[in-house]
Specification:
By secondary structure, this protein is α/β, with parallel strands linked by helices. The chain has one domain: CBS-domain (Roll). The chain is built from six helices and seven strands; from the N terminus they run αβαββααββαββα. The strands form two sheets. Strands 1-2-3-4 form a four-stranded mixed β-sheet. The longest helix has 34 residues.
Length: 176
């Protein structure tokens, strides 16, 4: 085989690789677009841990079973009041630093007991997503805020579900 033939085969191979790469990108782009337009209500968890503000930290901790990693705090009408995640709880178990600022670390670690109410520790006015939004909007909120749990609410602020990063990843895995 001459140098010219080798060069032509190599050039043809590179051209073919570029075409295949472009086709893969188009297919991936189509899949991503389709995925981003899926309504949140199809992916959210409808069976989530719901708590009253008067529930104790003990009931929250015992409510974390298997898949549960957050508790959504609602009023009698299921309207959102707050959220409390495993990560939020862990902050209260951080040992005091060597030089606490005005003793805040000591206060933080000593005031959490089993009988404490979730209302005293919940994140009030958490970042939410609307039940009519799509996954693209939800992913944007998650990435921009760093939050892994989004209560899904309707226009009356009633909680309809909970969307977590793991729910989105599970959905991607099933549809990819």
């Amino acid at each position: 085989m001459s140098d010219i033939e080798t060069l032509l085969k190599r050039r043809h191979s590179l051209k073919l690789q570029r075409i295949l790469s472009r086709k893969r990108e188009e297919l991936l782009s189509y899949t991503q677009k389709r995925l981003l337009n899926v309504p949140v209500r199809l992916v959210m968890d409808r069976d989530f841990l719901k708590l009253s503000p008067e529930d104790t930290i003990d009931s929250l901790i015992h409510g974390f079973s298997g898949e549960e990693t957050a508790g959504v705090i609602v009023d009698e009408e299921d309207k959102l009041l707050g959220i409390l995640t495993m990560k939020d709880l862990l902050r209260f178990f951080i040992p005091p630093t060597k030089y606490p600022i005005v003793g805040l670390d000591l206060l933080k670690s000593s005031r959490l007991t089993k009988r404490c109410k979730v209302k005293d520790f919940m994140v009030k006015n958490p970042i939410t997503i609307n039940v009519n939004d799509n996954l693209g909007q939800a992913i944007r909120v998650i990435v921009e805020t760093g939050k892994h749990h989004l209560p899904v609410i309707d226009k009356e602020r009633k909680v309809r579900g909970l969307l977590e990063v793991k729910d989105i990843i599970r959905f991607i895995r099933l549809t990819w």
